[in-house]
Design goal:
Layout: H1 3-9, E1 11-16, H2 22-38, E2 44-51, H3 54-78, H4 82-87, E3 90-96, H5 102-115, E4 121-124, E5 131-134, H6 136-145, H7 147-152, E6 157-159, E7 164-166, E8 175-177, H8 178-194, E9 208-212, H9 235-248, H10 256-262, E10 273-278, H11 291-306, H12 316-319, H13 321-328, H14 331-341, E11 345-350, E12 356-360, H15 382-385, H16 395-424
Parallel strand pairs: 1-2, 1-4, 2-3, 4-9, 9-10, 10-11
Antiparallel strand pairs: 5-6, 7-8, 11-12
The protein binds NADP nicotinamide-adenine-dinucleotide phosphate (NAP).
Length: about 425
């Protein structure tokens, strides 16, 4: 191996979408902290952040550099002088993309592919809620009567119905569901474009595509006849259920005809791996609330944690633990966990004191690893903290999950191909 190859190998490149706020920003902070502590001194982290505007990008880079300085100061206290070595191991650069504008997504994909730099991790974090407000009487009643459950699985959010993002025209065929595009389809197109930069070979592990879901990805929120959730007032929950369906079935033989095209697969062993994570419930700006109500929500979330909810990291830094872990954990350790216990939805969780950990989350029809017969009992207080509508996985529900996964993979691929053609024109 010549020295330039050696140098190339020691750079670990991670791209995070929606990095300017909430979980995206905290994921970047965690990646910096954990990379410096867990990876060998010969490795450098190249962090590529995406935002929707250049000003947000500049500001985010400045805030990340401030965070890096704080981390270095702490390191210097325990090992004087180490900061000089460490600071050279983090490089931050930026890109702009609006995931609701497919042309902008395609342009970003083209820029990255043209540059040809290997991409080790893509974190599909950016997202929107698509909510217009809350049903206040229902919110107050359910909080007072059922605090922990209603803070975790709220039934009082009001979503916009039929919001679209125009792709250059007003005609129906030139529009896409807004939440669907921001949360799933924009990332889907981007991941497809950069997949060739993420392949593994004899010297490199395959790259990792990490999709961010939610604890609110209810099976009933997704209507297979309405992929983009245009007729639904739960477009957010639908987009997250779609994410679960896609990623959890992505390694099954039945979805291979679609996934191999999506990942531009030429050789099975080299394709990037897809992982599914969710941050639990965190206080971020995704719920667009006035300041006073934002603080009320913060307090409500802490109370839910103190009442025993494992799903309330509350702080976005704690919420980022699952995506940072999936980004940096040894590839072999992730592979053995998913091979032994099945493909998982990895969650950020905390105990009442805020001690974090990454745990598997139950998914309707799939369970914790796509295995029939698993029970909630005994799984980390989960029987008491499960969504009340959740049922144990049965042979039939597991089969239905896979059939639906196969269907949505096929539809997503058809949609991608038709939009790629339109964008080429
Ligand atoms: N907070 C939670 O409790 C929670 C729970 C479960 C899952 N999540 C998921 O975590 C992810 C991050 O959410 P968050 O809570 O951190 O929310 P946030 O603070 O509102 O951050 C969302 C990020 O996505 C970006 N974004 C939104 N629409 C975009 C678009 N069309 N193109 C490009 N970027 C776009 C935003 O950029 P702008 O600043 O330009 O709008 C922002 O950087 C989302 O996928 C969300 O569904 C959050």
């Amino acid at each position: 191996m010549d020295s330039s190859e050696d140098e190339q190998q020691s750079v670990y490149t991670v791209l995070v979408t929606g990095a300017n706020s909430g979980l995206g920003f905290s994921t970047c902070c965690r990646l910096i902290d954990e990379f410096l502590h867990s990876r060998p001194q010969t490795q450098t982290l190249q962090l590529i952040i995406t935002t929707r505007s250049t000003s947000k990008n500049k500001d985010t880079q400045a805030r990340l550099h401030q965070h890096l300085q704080k981390t270095l100061q702490k390191a210097d206290k325990s090992t004087p002088g180490i900061s000089q070595v460490l600071s050279a191991r983090v490089k931050i650069s930026g890109e702009q993309v609006d995931l609701c504008n497919l042309r902008s997504v395609k342009e970003l994909g083209n820029r990255l592919v043209k540059r040809g730099t290997r991409l080790d991790v893509l974190i599909c974090n950016a997202g929107i809620g698509g909510w217009k407000g809350l049903n206040w009487p229902a919110a107050i009643w359910s909080m007072l009567t059922d605090w922990k459950h209603s803070c975790t699985y709220p039934t009082y959010k009001l979503g916009f119905v039929g919001s679209v993002s125009p792709q250059g025209g007003e005609k129906k065929e030139e529009q896409l569901g807004e939440v669907f595009t921001a949360n799933v389809f924009g990332h889907y197109l981007l991941a497809h474009a950069v997949a060739p930069l993420m392949k593994g070979d004899e010297t490199k592990e395959p790259g990792r595509i990490i999709w961010i879901s939610s604890i609110e990805a209810y099976a009933h929120a997704f209507n297979p006849e309405d992929l983009q959730a245009l007729k639904s007032d739960a477009a957010y929950e639908s987009s997250k259920r779609l994410t679960d369906l896609l990623i959890l079935t992505s390694e099954l033989p039945s979805t291979k005809p679609s996934t191999s095209k999506f990942l531009q697969e030429k050789d099975d062993q080299r394709k990037p791996k897809m992982y599914l994570a969710h941050p639990g419930v965190c206080a971020t700006s995704i719920a667009d609330l006035p300041l006073v109500l934002w603080y009320a929500m913060l307090l409500a979330q802490y109370i839910a944690r103190w009442l025993g909810s494992p799903w309330h990291p509350v702080s976005s830094y704690l919420g980022a633990v699952s995506s940072a872990w999936l980004s940096l954990a040894p590839f072999s350790s992730l592979a053995s966990q998913e091979n032994n216990e099945g493909k998982a939805k990895w969650a950020s969780s905390t105990d009442v004191f805020g001690n974090e950990r990454v745990v598997r989350t139950e998914v309707g029809g799939w369970g914790w690893g796509g295995r029939v017969g698993e029970k909630a009992d005994g799984k980390m207080r989960l029987s008491a903290n499960r969504w009340r509508g959740q049922e144990d996985v049965t042979k039939e529900s597991r089969e239905d999950f896979e059939v639906l996964g196969q269907k949505v993979w096929k539809e997503m691929e058809e949609l991608r191909q038709s939009w790629e053609k339109k964008l080429d024109v």
